[in-house]
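Sanity check

After download, print the first record. It should look like this:
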Amino acid sequence: MRERGPDEPTFTPMTERPRLRNAEEAARLLQELYPPLLRDAGIGGTANIWFYIDETGRVADARVNESSGYQALDAAALRAAERMEFTPARNGDQQVPVWVALDMTFEVD
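Expected structure tokens:
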């Protein structure tokens, strides 16, 4: 994530939302990045993450919107966010940068 989005997440009109292109890899990443101490203790959680997706579909910024309640899970979610790939959002025939919020859940197997 080289550039950052606007200081605060803002609404951008769009007719087509961005879609996650590497969902299987993202799910695998969440398991890989799951902090072992929390997993071994049976502790999971969901962090709601703001993603700033640029006009090419790249994640240019990611921030915690709602914490999982565990700083280590929130940090792992942000690390996973850096490697997620999206289709660009569109407004009519134009690709537009947008903020979207997504849940990232860590579950004990």
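If your output differs, re-run the checksum step. Summary of this record's structure: The chain has a mean pLDDT of 94.
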